[in-house]
Amino acid sequence: MRKTILIAIAAVILIATPAFTQTVVERHNFSSMGQWVPGPGNWSVSGNRLHQNDPREPLARVDKRLAQHGTYQLDFNIRYADGGYRSARDLQNEHLHAGFGVQVGVSNPPLRGKSWGLGESYLLWLNLDTRPETRREKPEHFGFRAQVYESKSNTNMDLMRSRELQALLGSPLVSIDIAEAMYRELGFLIDIADVEPFLYRDVPISIRVNTRTGEIGVKDPTAPLRFFFSVDPAVLRGNYIALRTNGLAANFSDFVVTSR
């Protein structure tokens, strides 16, 4: 399968990107928690990995102070550990629900506290939800989706809306059904079984943020391509980022921040 985990998160133009002259700002091998501040969930470090060990916590989060200005890039690996289902029967029936993401543009989050949103910021989210009740009641979340949430406060966060997506797909919500988009754009058919190989290895994540223009680029982990979309640049100039999981135990490694 040429493409699986990440696909365009908004009404995106797919292009090969020019070389990015990088200066390493921070590098974390997770020999200790260091400047990472654990919030909800069960966070620990071992084996040079940052672990979120609670597969039930819906709002697991760890915060990291990071001044965000100019153009910067976040690179790290994530690996599945546990979770994504409520019972053995749900697992057998493939009624799954889990997600993870990165929140950028965060300013002064409620450190160690539980919250739905994080002030004014954006959450870049990958979500898997195959539960029948989601199909019935919240179809915009059903399936394997790349999503962008716009947070307006610690209690107010929802899927971002895009006029470009409204024109392209008929819905303004930035919630892309990856299987549908793969078939529409590339003629590939994928299902849950195609995601399974990614459960047993590191998945590289790379996110580039331009705080001047509001452009965000998410790299396809299987090809030298990035998928771009735009947000409000004023929101991106935060002083924290956050790693988040929902209903998922996972671990992170080789976290690097670079700038140009």
What does this structure look like?
- This protein is mostly beta strands and 260 residues long.
- The protein has a single domain (14-259), classed as Jelly Rolls.
- It has helices at residues 88-92, 132-137, 163-169, 178-186, 192-195; strands at residues 14-15, 23-28, 36-38, 43-46, 49-52, 60-65, 71-83, 97-106, 121-129, 143-151, 157-159, 175-177, 203-210, 215-219, 226-230, 240-246, 248-259.
- The strands form two sheets. Strands 1, 2, 4, 5, 7, 13, 14, 15 and 17 form a nine-stranded antiparallel beta sheet that branches. Strands 3, 6, 8, 9, 10, 11, 12 and 16 form an eight-stranded antiparallel beta sheet that branches.
- A hairpin with a 2-residue loop joins strand 4 and strand 5.
- The relative contact order is 0.31.
What's the structural blueprint in terms of helices and strands?
Blueprint: E1 14-15, E2 23-28, E3 36-38, E4 43-46, E5 49-52, E6 60-65, E7 71-83, H1 88-92, E8 97-106, E9 121-129, H2 132-137, E10 143-151, E11 157-159, H3 163-169, E12 175-177, H4 178-186, H5 192-195, E13 203-210, E14 215-219, E15 226-230, E16 240-246, E17 248-259
Antiparallel strand pairs: 1-15, 2-17, 3-6, 4-5, 5-17, 6-16, 7-13, 7-17, 8-9, 8-16, 9-10, 10-11, 10-12, 13-14, 14-15
